[in-house]
Design brief:
single chain; alpha/beta; 8-stranded parallel β-sheet; 11 helices
C-alpha cells in the first residue's frame, strides 16, 4: 500500500531546483511535446474556471508522459490586480501522481516551479532566436517573474547592460536593489527598450505596453504576461512585423490575446525549432509568446522529486 504523499514546501523546492539541470530537461520536453506523440506527452489545453468575484481564474494543467512514467497536474490561480495591490497575482500548487496506482506521490509548492520553468523556457527561446552577441536586455515588470527572468538571463548570457521598467519608480528602484548585478531603472517603456537586443515582458497589463515602433529590427521579445484571450502586452505592429514563436499552437490560439486580437500568424513552436522542423530566424525580429504548459511543470516537478529522494536517502 502506498504511503502518504510527500509535502515539499517552497524553500525546499528552491533548494532542489537549479537552471543548469532544469534547462536541458525543458528543451527535451518542448521537443517531445511538438512531436505530438501520445506515448511521449498527453497535454490538453489548460482548463480555466473563472473566479469572477475575485477578478481571477483557476487553471488546471494536467500532463501524462507515458514513456517517462510521469503523471502530474498543476492548480494555478491568477488574478487581475490593481496597481499597488499587496495580494499575489499568481498562486500555484503542483501534484505528482503514480500513473500505475493513481496515488499522489508528492504535493509541492508551485511558485518556484512556475517562476523558474517559465523563465527557463524564455531563456531557451533567446538561446534559439536571439542574435549572437546581444548586449542589452530590457525587462518590463518587476514582480517574481521579472526576478526569475533576470536570474536566468544573466546566468546564461553576457549582457553589457540590463534595464528595467515598472509603472512606479519605487518598484523599479526596489528591483534594482534586490538583484546582485547592475541594473538601470528606466522612467518609460520606450527608454527601456530602445536599442535593446532582448526584451522580456512580464507585466500585469491587459493593454499593450510594448509598441513595435520602439523595438529595433532583429530584437528578440519574450512575452510572458497577458495570459487571457482579451489581455495584451504587445501592439499589432510588433505582432505582425515579427516572426512569432509559441510554446503551444493550441494554447496560443485559445489563450493569447496578443495573438488572437492582432491576427498574427504563428510561425512555429519552440519544439519545432528544437526538433529541426522549423528554422530559427535570428536575423529577424522575433516574438516568443509564452503561455506555460503542463509538460514544463511535469518535468520540473519530477526533477524536484528525484532530487528530494536523493537527498532523503543520504540523511
Amino acid at each position: 500500500m502506498a504511503g502518504p504523499p510527500v509535502i515539499i514546501w517552497e524553500h525546499e523546492v528552491e533548494s532542489l531546483l537549479c537552471y543548469r539541470q532544469l534547462i536541458p530537461r525543458l528543451e527535451d520536453a518542448l521537443g517531445k511535446f511538438s512531436r505530438r506523440d501520445s506515448a511521449e506527452v498527453i497535454q490538453p489545453v489548460r482548463l480555466t474556471v473563472p473566479l469572477q468575484k475575485h477578478s481571477g481564474f483557476m487553471g488546471l494543467m494536467p500532463t501524462y508522459m507515458e514513456n517517462d512514467g510521469v503523471l502530474c497536474t498543476k492548480f494555478v490561480c491568477f488574478y487581475k490586480r490593481e496597481d499597488g495591490s499587496t495580494l499575489p497575482a499568481v498562486q500555484a500548487t503542483v501534484v505528482l501522481l503514480d500513473p500505475e496506482y493513481g496515488n499522489v506521490k508528492a504535493v509541492m509548492d508551485g511558485e518556484v516551479i512556475t517562476g523558474m520553468r517559465t523563465a527557463a523556457v524564455s531563456a531557451i527561446s533567446a538561446k534559439l532566436l536571439m542574435r549572437p552577441g546581444a548586449e542589452v536586455l530590457a525587462i518590463l515588470g518587476t514582480g517574481k517573474q521579472a526576478l526569475s527572468h533576470y536570474n536566468v538571463f544573466t546566468e546564461m548570457f553576457s549582457f553589457k547592460e540590463v534595464r528595467v521598467w515598472s509603472r512606479t519608480k519605487q518598484r523599479a528602484e526596489s528591483f534594482c536593489q534586490s538583484v546582485s548585478g547592475p541594473v538601470k531603472a528606466c522612467a518609460s517603456v520606450e527608454e527601456a527598450v530602445t536599442g535593446a537586443d532582448a526584451i522580456v515582458t512580464v507585466t500585469r497589463s491587459t493593454e499593450p505596453v510594448l509598441f513595435g515602433q520602439w523595438v529595433k529590427p532583429g530584437a528578440h521579445v519574450a512575452a510572458v504576461g497577458a495570459c487571457r484571450p482579451d489581455w495584451r502586452e504587445l501592439d499589432d505592429v510588433l505582432m505582425k512585423e515579427a516572426v512569432v514563436y509559441v510554446d503551444s499552437r493550441e494554447g496560443a490560439m485559445t489563450e493569447s490575446g496578443d495573438i488572437i486580437l492582432s491576427g498574427a500568424e504563428v510561425f512555429a513552436e519552440l519544439g519545432d525549432v528544437i526538433n529541426g522542423i522549423k528554422p530559427a530566424h535570428r536575423e529577424k525580429t522575433t516574438v516568443f509568446k509564452s503561455l506555460g504548459m503542463g509538460v514544463e511543470d511535469a518535468v520540473s516537478a519530477q526533477l524536484v522529486f528525484d532530487q528530494w529522494k536523493a537527498k532523503a536517502s543520504q540523511s
